[in-house]
Amino acid sequence: MGIIVENVSKSYGGKKVLDNVSFEAKDGEFVTFLGPTGEGKTTLLRIIAGIESPDSGKVYFDDRDVTRVAVQKRNIAMVYQWFVNYPSMTVFENIASPLRALGSKIGKDELQERVMATARLLKIDELVDHYPSEISGGQQQRLAIARALVKNADFIFFDEPLTNLDYKLQEELRVEIKRIFKKKSKGCVLFATPQPFEALTLSDSVGFMHRGRLLQYGDVNEVYHRPNSVNVGSYFSHPGMNIFEAPVERLEGKTLLKASDELVFDVSHLAGILDADRYILGIRAHFLSTGSADGATIPFAATIELDEVVGSNTELHLDHQGLALVALLDTIGDFEPGMEITAYLNPQKLFIFDADTKKLITRTGSH
Known about the structure:
Blueprint: E1 2-12, E2 15-26, E3 30-34, H1 41-49, E4 56-61, E5 64-65, E6 76-79, H2 91-100, H3 108-121, H4 137-149, E7 155-159, H5 167-181, E8 188-193, H6 196-202, E9 205-210, E10 213-219, H7 220-225, H8 230-235, E11 242-251, E12 254-258, E13 264-266, E14 278-283, E15 288-289, E16 298-310, E17 313-320, E18 323-329, E19 340-345, E20 351-354, E21 360-363
Parallel strand pairs: 3-8, 3-9, 6-7, 7-8
Antiparallel strand pairs: 1-2, 1-4, 4-5, 9-10, 11-12, 11-14, 12-13, 14-20, 15-19, 16-17, 16-19, 17-18, 20-21
């Protein structure tokens, strides 16, 4: 039970926005659709919710075909990127509005109880007498989420709900959203975002969207640790995965991947499946460092192009013989642009992609 989408396609003005998308979201799952802006995530949510109709394909809720069922007749709720609250209503009345739309089906006492319980859950119960203009942006988005939750909808859709909030508010609401939906056993949550970190921290399953196609869909850990292509691997990483080419050299019975004179990787144990002349390599930023933990890492000379402090971490943007690399350090160091350093790379953490198809072939070790 849950949501099943089968072969859904959609075009606008001759341009295909969704191309044969299929997936299943089971009861209790939190599913994130990840990808840059303009890849079809919003359109997919709107079609599943019933706001738009597909050109072809089917949508099922709990094994019932709802493809042509009006949105008003689907037990869904939606939270948008922009705050969709009624400015002339108090916080209480905004939360109550979906219940009042049900008319006499909800009694006065039940309405009061459900509104206040939802307000407490979102930590805005002390603001129920305020108007949206009198509360902060983060509180307004909490209000929008409360309006969605109060309906007790089986299926809840989030369309980039944190994008327009500052970093701290995004962090707070990520925690709240995860807490609220962690124990959801009936129905499921579909969440669209361009932010890999949100997909990593919130999701049970993740789907990567690219040019209207669902390139990969599955358990979040499986997709993260085994991205099926360069597109998925390079984007679904925080910060982005380092991607670079490496020609193959076969010397004295060894198979080597040579990204530079210093970055040479012995992949002889994979020689049986590496029969091309070149490959694309990928490595996550946290497997590059400025200090060697053991003799397994490979040292290489690099110039610091930029250092960015992110929380308690530092992102070092490096240049190595024209090769741009990013290292993620779990410290705040004394770095300056132009500084020459020795960096280290763990060769057991490489992803190897086909240079032509961009598909994942294998990994060099455990990840």
